[in-house]
Amino acid sequence: VLKDKNAPPLSKRILEMTTLKAIETVDDIEIHSLKSTLTESGLNFLSMLPMAKVEVIKKNGVTTACRWQNTKRRFTCPGMPNWVYVGPHKMKSGKTQKSCIWSHPAKNATLKIAFPNPPPNSQIYFEHALSTNAVRSDNKSPVVAAIFADEAKIKKMSRGNQTGFAATTINLPSRPTQNLTLEITAKNDGARHYCFNLKAKTKETHP
């Protein structure tokens, strides 16, 4: 992380994720390293969200880059309805309420979320849900989530009008992966109030 003394201060969240002491200083720019967000219980990708790359890709290939907004704590996508964003959310689905990553699908497009440098040789826990109100809507179109390790599709799940979070686990390869990417779509995006969680835990190795 580069910290320019003459620029506006870094956000509170970024400061929390960086080391207090600069590892190098070049002119007026301080270089800080990121603290590891991998704890004994694993990595919650919600904490990595500001570092993600978010795009909306239409069927004709036109791509819109979504921007992280510190004030709103979310990625907003120019030209999209205000409900098409990616950010922390507390959502109720049936009897369950959880903190998760809101990712409403876009109309006739793919919502793409890429998380950089997931821990290699780890087990990924993925869960997703539609909100209670979405389940009660007349739209029966499921939300589909395709998960990629770089260019390789490693899982595809859909969630229709059922309450609760559906979950699965996926093993990442031992080789380094540059991006763990979700591609979220729905044939009919009306009232698809969708949320997911991603967590990673490094698998135990034995000599």
Question: What report would you give on this structure?
Answer:
- The chain has 207 residues and is mostly beta strands.
- Helix content is 5%, strand content 47%.
- It has 2 helices and 17 strands.
- A hairpin with a 2-residue loop joins β9 and β10 (96-103).
Short description:
This protein is mostly beta strands and 207 residues long. 5% of the residues lie in helices and 47% in strands.
Q: What kind of oligomer do you see? A: single chain
Helix content: under 10%
Helical/strand content category: mainly beta
- How many strand segments? 17
Q: Distance N terminus to C terminus? A: 36 Å
> How many DSSP H or I helices?
2
**Uncertain regions: pLDDT < 50 for 5+ in a row?**
35-40
Described by strand count, sense and barrel closure, the largest sheet is: 8 strands, antiparallel
Based on CA atoms alone, the radius of gyration comes out at 18 Å
Mean pLDDT: 87
Q: Tell me the series of helices and strands, N- to C-terminal.
A: EHEEEEEEEEEEEHEEEEE
Shape: globular
Strand content: over 45%
Give the arrangement of secondary structure elements.
Elements: E1 2-4, H1 12-17, E2 24-26, E3 29-31, E4 43-44, E5 53-58, E6 63-65, E7 67-69, E8 74-76, E9 85-93, E10 96-103, E11 109-116, E12 122-130, H2 132-136, E13 143-149, E14 152-159, E15 166-171, E16 179-186, E17 194-202
